[in-house]
Amino acid sequence: MTTARTRETQIEVDQEVPLVRMTREFDAPPEKVFRAHVDPDLFARWAGPRSLSTRIDGWDCRTGGSYRFVQTRGDDEFGFRGTFHEVRPNELIVQTFTFEGMPDGVALEKLVFEDLGDGRTRLTGTSLVDSFADRDAFVVSGMETGAIEGYEKLDEVLATL
């Protein structure tokens, strides 16, 4: 596994399995970090890089629910959709994730919200795809910028809750 460490977001690309793991700590309790992931209005405020705006087209964040959102920059639109396989308040979200520009590529994502005490949370997100080619395309797509800037925006949203 190779590791690229940025200011606060750790991104690991596994060399044995086609997955990417991102880890980030937040100065907010798990309840707030979880809420920012399941509330569509809050999610739209922080998801993705600063150069994109997020519009929620559908959001049913419960076990068995589904979602669709669109990120825009000027006339460019990028759609994403998936289903929520398991939603366990303040602990876990397991979901699928599809970029509609590559409809055959589906990632299985697991988000774990770990209480660090003192009002802090470690979020670990693991994305598993079906091939190394899809994983590598995911990595070079701008994912790192989107994750880092998105988590910076999440810090800003959490400060308002």
From TrEMBL:
UniProt xrefs under Pfam families: AHSA1
Domain Activator of Hsp90 ATPase homologue 1/2-like C-terminal positions: 27-158
Transmembrane segments: none
Highest rank taxon of the organism: Bacteria
Family: Belongs to the AHA1 family.
Protein name as annotated: Uncharacterized protein YndB with AHSA1/START domain
UniProt organism field: Petropleomorpha daqingensis
